[in-house]
Automatic annotation (TrEMBL):
Domain of life: Bacteria
Name recorded for this polypeptide: YaeQ family protein
InterPro entries listed in its UniProt record: Restrct_endonuc-II-like (IPR011335), YaeQ (IPR009822), YaeQ_sf (IPR038590)
Pfam families registered for this protein in UniProt: YaeQ (PF07152)
Length: 180
């Protein structure tokens, strides 16, 4: 018998001073049985960082044809494809062919090893950006995970703060590869 996803709810208040975006979002997040709280919270972080009118969670782990987060335009064309973790180069190159922009947010302590292996393989992908969230920061973010969450996200000068109650986590993503 297959295990079912666990449903999380988040009221997310976003104040992105870098883009002039201020809004509240009610998110329903399906956490796959094999997904950790840390990975799920990185998906929430990706949503907060790249929020737009049409941004939504994809099936991610449970479907190889969809990313973790994506944005499609009104014609169905994929504008942004977001992968969380350490996807393989074939998946990323395929995504680069299907989407205007592809973003990877890696977060584990092994991200440096993964990136050393992937860097040369992904050099030709001009519409690919790779960010790394330091392990200590992603682990602190994981501690904010609850079945029902009230989160505030503030983005200013490239720094991100995510708070739940009186606990605040600062995220300083490191750019490993930028769009070229």
């Amino acid at each position: 018998m297959a295990l079912k996803s666990i449903i999380y709810k988040a009221d997310l208040n976003i104040s992105d001073m870098d883009r002039g975006y201020y809004a509240d979002h009610q998110l329903t997040i399906a956490r796959h049985p094999s997904e950790t709280d840390e990975r799920m919270m990185i998906r929430v972080l990706a949503f907060a960082m790249y929020v737009s009118e049409r941004l939504e969670f994809g099936k991610g782990i449970s479907d190889t044809e969809e990313p973790d987060v994506w944005e499609k335009d009104y014609t169905g064309a994929i504008r942004l494809w977001v992968e969380v973790g350490q996807p393989d180069d074939r998946r990323l190159l395929k995504a680069c062919g299907r989407s205007e922009q592809v973003l990877v947010i890696c977060y584990a302590s092994a991200s440096d090893v993964w990136w050393k292996q992937m860097n040369s393989r992904l050099d030709r992908a001009k519409n690919l950006k790779v960010l790394n969230v330091p392990a200590a920061q992603s682990q602190a973010l994981e501690k904010l995970a609850q079945r029902t969450m009230q989160l505030q996200c503030t983005i200013q000068d490239g720094q991100i703060w995510i708070s739940a109650g009186d606990v605040s986590v600062q995220i300083d993503p490191e750019t490993l590869k930028d769009f070229s």
